[in-house]
Amino acid sequence: MSTFRRRFFENKTAVVCLIVLLLLALAAVFAPVLSPYDPTQMFQDHRMEGSSGEFMLGTDQFGRDIMSRIIYGARVSLMVGLSSVLVSAAFGTLFGLIAGYFGRWIDGLIMRVMDVLFAFPEILLALAIVAALGPGAFNTILAIGIVNIPIFTRTVRGAVLSIKNQEYVESARAIGASTPRILFLEIFPNVTAPLLVQASLAISGAILTESALSFLGLGIQPPDPSWGGMISEARRYMELAPGMIIWPCVAMTITILSCNMFGDAVRDILDPRHRGK
Amino acid sequence: MKKRVLASVFLSLSLMLSACSGGGSAPAGDSKEQSGEASKTEGKSELIVAVDQDPVGYDPHKVPAASSSRIYSLVYDSLTKLDANLDLVPGLAETWETAPDGKSITFHLRKGVKFHKGQELTAEDVKYTFERILNPDTGSIAKSYFASVDSIEAPDPATVVFKLKTPDAAFLTNASAPSASIVSKGSTDLTKEANGTGPFILKKSEPGQYVLLKKNPDYFSKELPKVDAIKFQIMKDEAERMAAIRAGKIDISAVSADSAKLLEGKPGIQVKSYQSLEYSYLGINVKKKPFDDPRVRQAISYAVDRNQIVQTVWKGEASLTGPIAPALTSWALDPSSYPSYSTNVEKAKQLLAEAGYPNGFDTVIETASTYPDMVESAQVIQQQLKAIGINAKINQLEWGNYIDTWKSKDMNIMVGRNTSGVDSDRSMRYFFSTTGSANVWNYSNPTYDELVQKALEAVDVKERKKLYDEAQKLLVEDAPNLFLASPKNFYAVRDNVDFSPTAAGESTALVKTSVKK
Amino acid sequence: MGSYLVKRIISLIPILFGISILVFTILHLVPGDPASIMLGTEATPEAVAVLRAEMGLDKPLVSQYLHWVGGLLQGDFGVSVHTGQEILPEILKRFMITLQLTLMAVLIGWTLAIPFGILSAIRSHSKTDKVIRILTLLGISVPNFAVGTLLLLGLSLYFNWFPPIDVTSFWDDPAEAFKVFILPAVTMGIAVAAGVMRMTRSAFLETMDKDFIRTARAKGNSMWTVVMGHGLRNSSIPIVTIAGMQIGYLLGGSVIVEQLFSIPGLGQYVLDGIYQRDYPVVQGGVLFVALVFVLVNLIIDLIYTWIDPRIKY
Predict the structure, then answer these.
(1) Could you tell me the pTM of the whole model?
(2) Which of A223, B303, C18, C88 gives the lowest tally of CB atoms within 10 Å of its CB?
(3) How confident is the model at residue B38 (pLDDT cuts 50, 70, 90)?
């Protein structure tokens, strides 16, 4: 692990992305301290203004401060991204471990169910789930989480298949370790790398999916600001107040860019074939 | 280094290519002619109207959706019509008279009117139509409009007599509704065929794309319609409609107040507007705690600043309104006569305290995600209620879900939009009387019920007006709904199109619309 | 090979069956009722009841499901509860539109992605590589509805241009169809490019590391010859994989892009179906999309054997 750490800190991209992501996370946590205003407060006399000393990034159609909404939006968007990936990663890992380790009919059954979920058009599935459960942050997270379970299952299953017959697993079995012990203590630690890469990519996917749901009117509920919600609301005012759409897009771009590049960098570091490049 | 330059050149080239394949091929202004409208060169005129939704069916008696009604109201006629000022004018009936006791109405039909399939209109068709509407198996939404009808007689082919159980002051106006369209005798499945007498014939319907109407050459009014065809182009996104009218691909499109502002004064486009019959409202379930206490409802009314809604949501292009929209000029009361319309946070807090909620309470505002104006109104109200300690969560519901919630009579408060209707009876009795079919607020006030029933039966107009004045005041005081604002409707119209929409509706204006070559 | 194909096709049956159950269940869990939606807020309860009976929704769910599946087995997708229109012909018509849009988007995406992906791999970890990678990532980091809106409004504002409003097919009028599909295709193509470019780069990186490439280079062949002659073919399996997944995915109809540009494709058909709770439409549409998806994946697997004859099934 120490070699990983060394290689990680040698990789400038990875470090920069990590710092950006940490800063975003800090912004999200300390949103109440950092934002100049309450993100839902409406300044009636300052609707759709450009940047000014008073409102750094201008105001939206209600006269709400865009800066504050973006900072609070980090909270909502990162929460949706992280939590939904947590949902898909948890279930995906469980299913993937079981399918990969036991093989045979259990594998067949799990993977057929995943195929069913996978073949279902993504946005439509998320939309149907939200419509069925009712709108709200929790249900949005759940819907996006469910939609992404198959990808994680496949990733983990693949990784398990490649290591389950290696010596250390065999020896654990030989000394009579229980199956859960083998699964979670021997195999799981060795699938974390591909899982991490997949997760960093899935977070940006989840943030985008939330924005698509917002476009269809079923994302995070107003007046709570999510970046996707802000962008889809601002679309109607694109020509009147371009700042309303530009700033949340910038925030989203930075986040997604960092997530993806972080994922790529970690993949490069972990991949023995790319060593030394 | 060379490679890098090459790469950036290629990237910008490919971006330009995608832009130019659009921009280059159609010089400004005449893209429409270029897109090859053969019909135009032959001296025929086709009007292209952008609409936001697919029609959901064409049976005028069954489907009240605006997306459907805008089409079938051009295909069918009703007995009476409303002109641009919302005054009654002859439709398929040339004249009519009401008996002195108000209990029978006789219509004399226009002669020589033909259905699109060729047969002549007779009193039997009218009788059949109204019997179809009144038959519970049809499930017509217009049934409640004609609840006063006792029997229908057709003494000769040109005369229809309606015998009423009670006098019905709203009958003649209700008879003008598209949902009372006259269909030919014996027609049953109006989803599959549309055989009307109207100015246009339903020619083709491509789901998700367009609905094409062709001029009815035998229309009873010889000079109408003025165009040879109307194509309703389905464009769901406002940005798309706006871009299309700017580029001249469509002739007419309803637009929001924001877009209207942007399009105002742009070459080739005129912006038309009129005060609509619609109003947005905050509906309150008067059975649910804490809203069962009128003081709580009044507190909400004092807390809500309707002017901020007008300014923010409608960009100033809306009027304050009571239960009868201001477009019905002779019936609507001036909103300044309602005391609870003045914003007064102190008074609101005091009322809440009196009702036992000095610190406010938590609640949920439900609204439809489909309509941005509703979501925005909900957000403004949510902020304003915060000031008096009411913490509301907004629930944006997808349309099908919203309708379910609306009908459940079990919501807390909800933001929506209603059309006040062309007759006060609809605005008052239909939405708020104890038995009114759209009274989902559980509102029940015997005094109110009596007032609006009397008003319906009042033969004298002045008497009727007095009753409605009283009922309006009572309703605003009781506040089962907060009437927020009645918006102006905006249309973007190409310069060569003579289209003047009014509160009487889009189709009334479309029939008279002409295109300059 | 033949027996493999038969086996694969048989394995599709439980998947399709599972999808039919899933879509039916979720759809009926969604609150809302097609009759109420059609009649709107003004409808009386009796009117709704009459319409529900006409739509066949008054029967128990299990019998509705069996009725539907029974029809499917005979190739009958049923009719829309709203318009009474046959569903299968409508699906096929809209699929042809979605197909054209997909192919154009994929073409645009690949044209951008493959050359840049190769360039990026050859010059891996150089500045060129970084710029290209960031540019492609930019393409997927802004929601496509924002990109699409910008294209529509910008072109109408500055060039007075808007795509033709009637959808045409490439086989009827290629020039006109090009204009119809170009904006949505570019909007979708950007996202396609990001995925393919990523995969192309990593696949090439891997291939270029192999011994036979080193040998070829050592023999004094130019970089270009080596890349085209050896690299491309040997890197194509992962590229084909992701391309296939994208095609399968896009053929389900890009709901948002179709909505934005009023393209009457499959995605919009199903989305409208969900909004109006037109159960048979959504069920039929989703099942069809899923069928296409698994078939495309099957075809991809067959293409593997063609690219790399060593792969045998």
Answers:
(1) 0.84
(2) C88
(3) very low
Query: Which residue from A120, A215, A252 is facing C19, i.e. has the nearest CB?
Result: A120
Please say if the pLDDT value at position B34 is more than 50: no
CA-nearest of B45, B53, B69 to B198 is B69
Contact criterion met (CB below 8 Å) for B349 and B388? yes
A235 touches chain B (CB under 8 A): yes
Q: What is the pLDDT of residues B373-421, one digit of tens each?
A: 999 999 999 999 999 999 999 988 888 888 888 888 888 999 999 888 8
Q: Tell me which chain B residue has its CA closest to the CA of residue C167.
A: B209
Structure tokens that stand for B509 in this block: 């204006």
Q: Is pLDDT at B298 greater than 90 in this prediction?
A: yes
| pLDDT for the residue B36 | 40
Among A residues 32-61, those touching chain C with beta carbons less than 8 Å apart? none
- B 10-49: CB under 8 A from C: 10-11, 14, 18-19, 21-23, 25-29, 31, 35, 48
pLDDT value, residue A6: 81
Query: B78 near C67, Cβ under 8 Å?
Result: no
pLDDT of the residue at B39 = 40
Is pLDDT larger for residue C312 or for residue C180? C180
Distance of CA B228 to the CA centre of its chain: 26
Structure tokens at B310: 């007008």
Q: Which residue has the tokens 């609507």?
A: B332
Distance CA B491, CA A30 (A): 46
Asked if C251 and C102 count as a contact pair (C-beta separation under 8 A), the reply is yes
Tell me which H or E stretch contains A2: helix A2-10
pLDDT digits (tens, 9 = 90+) for C77-93: 888 887 778 899 999 99
How many Å lie between the alpha carbon of C307 and the closest alpha carbon of chain A?
23
Assess A192–C contact: CB distance below 8 Å, yes or no.
no
Comparison of pLDDT for B2 and A54, the residue scoring more: A54
Test B376 with A62 for CB contact under 8 angstroms: yes
C256 with A115: Cβ contact below 8 A = no
Summarised one tens digit per residue, pLDDT across range A200-220 is 888 988 998 898 888 888 888
Tokens found for residue A110: 């799990």
Nearest to C125 among A122, A204, A277 (CB): A277
Asked whether the beta carbons of residue A222 and residue B394 sit closer than 8 angstroms, the reply is yes
Contact indicator for B59, B242 with CB cutoff of 8 Å = no
Q: Is B309 helix (H, G, I), strand (E, B) or coil?
A: helix
Place of tokens 């990523």: C198
Q: What pLDDT is stored for residue A277 in this prediction?
A: 39
Q: What part of A 122-181 touches C (C-beta under 8 Å)?
A: 122-125, 127-129, 131-132
Question: CA–CA separation, C273 vs B209, rounded Å?
Answer: 15
Q: Which of A84, A79, A58, A53 is nearest to A69 (CA)?
A: A58
Task: Measure CB to CB from residue A135 to each of B380, B382, B395 and give the nearest one.
Answer: B395
- On whether the CB atoms of residues B232 and B210 are closer than 8 A, the answer is yes
> What are the tens digits of pLDDT across the range C109-146?
989 888 888 888 888 778 888 888 888 888 778 888 88
Is 70 exceeded by the pLDDT of residue B372?
Answer: yes
Instruction: State percent of chain C over pLDDT 90.
Output: 11
Check pLDDT > 50 for residue C250: yes
Contact A119 C150 (CB under 8 A): no
- Asked whether the beta carbons of residue C15 and residue A122 sit closer than 8 angstroms, the reply is no
Return the pLDDT at B27: 35
Burial of residue A227 (CB within 10 Å: 0-12, 13-18, 19+) is buried
Query: How many residues does this entry show for chain B?
Result: 517
Rounded to 10 degrees, what is the CA torsion of C234, C235, C238, C240? -80
Say which of C31, C46, C152 has its CB closest to residue B239: C152
* CB < 8 Å to A239, chain B: 262
Element (H, E) at C275: helix C266-275
